[in-house]
Give the backbone structure.
Amino acid sequence: MESVESPARLSRRALSLGTAGAAALSLAPLQPAHAAGFKKELKKRKVPLEDYVSQPDFEFKGEPHEGLKVYDLEVGSGPVLKKGATAVVHYDCKFRGLMAVSSREARLLGGNRTIAEPFELTVGKVPGEYTRAIRYNTFTGVGMKVYIDKLAGGFFVENVTKNAPAQVAGIERNDKLLKVGDTEVSNLSPKEVGALLLGDEGTTVSVTVVPFNTDEPKTFNLTRAQYKVKSTVQGPPVVEGNGLFSGGSGPKPPVALFLALDGMKVGGKRSVIVPADLGYGEDGLNEIPPDAEYFIMDIELLDMRNA
């Protein structure tokens, strides 16, 4: 599985802010509001899930699918979106009160400059990468994806493969990796850590981590087994990289973004309940764990072009 250098994860950043900071990152209450008071109003009020309205059912990957549930926070005063037009949006995905994925996140450009670009999509068209058949690679090991976090110091668990030894034993995302067997990983390269996690099927290795939000190390004795990961998402157990956005890149939106815009007007804001299969599925992303039942996505329609 894969490891990259990455800035500190949001959950640790939120923790460092203390109670007040974490509260500021909580799930935005969802209620109509106008531009100047929009963020302030979101902090005060919350729309119950039962107030979301179901859109018409649709077909996805050749199968019938229940329509998305949406709530219009603000209707907008511009033209209604037309199929085939280019929609310019900002979107924010939140899981259990924490901002997990957002087009508003600043990305690093050359010369230490940053920019937060809106996302553009074709209305009514789901990109092929979301609908094509998924290919898998098979590995033999404990099923952990780890990354180097230079800001926090050390290796951390990015993800655990569903039903693989690490996940079954109880190792979770954001746990800090200390040792594999008797070897401390702090001074190892990513490739060396990857080699320790892999091994022959049926062999046993101990993995010592500090569970997230605790200070006490915990050791797990894991029996290596075969597991599969998506070839388009994850590669070998550890890969070096800087984990930073570059110009022209950005977070991957959930497929629900391409399906949730029907009926929106330019200037409008909409909240969407995103189920796992239309979100980040078995992979998860950032603070959204694998197979999360649902998360909330807020969309702001900024412009429509080429209608």
User: Anything to note?
Assistant: Residues 1-45, 233-248 have pLDDT under 50 and may be disordered.
